[in-house]
Specification:
With about 425 residues, this protein is an alpha/beta fold. About 40% of the residues lie in helices and about 15% in strands. The protein is built from 14 helices and twelve strands. The strands form two sheets. An eight-stranded parallel β-barrel has the order 2-3-4-5-8-9-10-12, surrounded by eight helices. The longest helix has 20 residues, at about 175-195.
Length: about 425
């Protein structure tokens, strides 16, 4: 534990260091029969499309993250009826012929500029909490963005496990899962404290120490910005249900598995006297007919960027990149031997899993006609999913399709009706 620095002004001691901690309560989680639609991964090259099909028209299909293209997307989703934008938090991409996710706008710039060109949509940014960045810095930046947006900020908290990113920050890592979520827990409590406190505060945790710390202006959102987390393990879910308001889950591509996981998470949150919104990452290819959408999917699938997928897998700790002598095995872990995977066209994953990574990074795949996609979204909603982070092969076209085709179908069926 660090000692109080000389000259530090006195602050009120933090009431807690770990969650659950909700000063002033939780943010509003949304209305019934409303499918919260977010545009996801718009701020990184290719989004969730690890397919060389993006090279057929790079400016539109790979480099949509560039300003002013992305500013047009922000204005477009607001006009179309989306509820929010959600950024993908990246410090390094996955290369390959497509340069998958190699380029992108950072969490602060993307949020601030999006806030400046819109008036209604939620501005959901993504932060990593394990790189020894002070909660004070993140609280100051996010409070300023929340002020610029008029109280529309949400923050997606990531307890990162990418060894390459830790190395970029000069750190050995990643630490154990228990430590990563302990760090996230302290960071989240400190953020809530700084966002809401009228007075300077002291925070003496195992990972962060603040003395006489205060952020002015405070966060504009009331009671505070909405907090999001994507967690899968029991350790991660324990943190997220105690501290966050929306939880992203992945559960294959069946509605029933999403229903089961949603029920588990709601029960965990209820044990802490809290409620959460379940969210799903979705990869969308839709068209006038199921056949037309299937044709696009087939074309994209045939061109999956294998090298980019392999890099994603190694950095996620799934396989060893043993064919690269410059990368030490212990950087990535030993979850899957690569001796056979290097020759396997599906990297040892099997065809279905490999294609799910190339076509959406494991997201729920919404492929088909506008009516078919609406059916699937409603099924997921009725199974307990309230928010849908949509990522498109062609984001500009996808936003237009949502406005002109998808939302009218949802409204006709009694969902997402205009507020009166």
């Amino acid at each position: 534990m660090a000692a109080r620095p000389r000259g530090a002004r006195p602050g009120t001691a933090a009431p807690v260091l770990r969650g659950p901690y909700d000063p002033g309560g939780q943010p509003d989680l949304g209305a019934d029969r409303h499918l919260h639609l977010s545009l996801f991964a718009w701020n990184v090259s290719s989004g969730l499309s690890a397919s060389k099909a993006v090279l057929s028209e790079p400016a539109r299909l790979r480099d949509f993250w560039k300003w002013p293209s992305s500013s047009e997307l922000m204005r477009g989703i607001e006009r179309a009826g989306f509820d929010s934008q959600l950024q993908y938090g990246m410090w390094s991409g996955y290369g390959g012929d497509t340069g998958w996710n190699d380029y992108g706008l950072d969490w602060a710039t993307a949020a601030a500029t999006s806030a400046a060109v819109t008036e209604r949509i939620g501005i959901y940014s993504t932060i990593h909490v394990g790189y020894e960045v002070s909660p004070l810095l993140i609280a100051k930046v996010t409070s300023s963005i929340d002020h610029v947006s008029g109280g529309r900020l949400g923050v997606n908290v990531v307890a990162g496990q990418n060894a390459v990113d830790y190395a970029q920050f000069g750190l050995e890592g990643p630490p154990s899962q228990e430590i990563r979520y302990a760090i996230a827990d302290e960071m989240t409590t400190a953020l809530k404290l700084l966002w809401t406190s009228d007075e300077p505060v002291d925070f003496e945790g195992a990972y962060f120490q603040l003395y006489g710390a205060q952020v002015l202006p405070r966060a504009t959102s009331r009671p505070r910005p909405l907090l999001i987390c994507a967690a899968a393990s029991d350790i991660g879910l324990d943190y997220a249900t105690r501290q966050c308001d929306a939880l992203f889950i992945t559960a294959g591509n069946t509605v029933e598995t999403y229903r089961e996981k949603a029920q588990k998470i709601h029960a965990m949150a209820a044990e802490h006297g809290r409620k959460v919104r379940i969210a799903a990452m979705c990869y969308v290819v839709m068209d006038e007919t199921d056949a037309a959408a299937a044709e696009t999917v087939q074309w994209m699938t045939e061109q999956i960027d294998r090298d980019a997928i392999e890099t994603w897998l190694t950095r996620s700790g799934h396989i060893l990149k043993s064919d690269n002598p410059d990368i030490a095995d212990d950087v990535y872990g030993d979850a899957r031997a690569a001796s056979g995977a290097a020759q396997d066209p599906y990297l040892g994953l099997g065809k279905e899993h490999y294609e799910s990574l190339g076509m959406g990074m494991g997201a729920f795949q919404l492929f088909g006609s506008y009516s078919s996609v609406a059916d699937q979204l409603i099924e997921l909603y009725e199974a307990g999913v309230g928010q849908f982070a949509l990522c498109f092969f062609d984001p500009h076209k996808g936003v237009q399709q949502v406005e002109e085709h998808l939302l009218p179908i949802l409204r006709e069926r009694g969902y997402n009706l205009p507020l009166r």
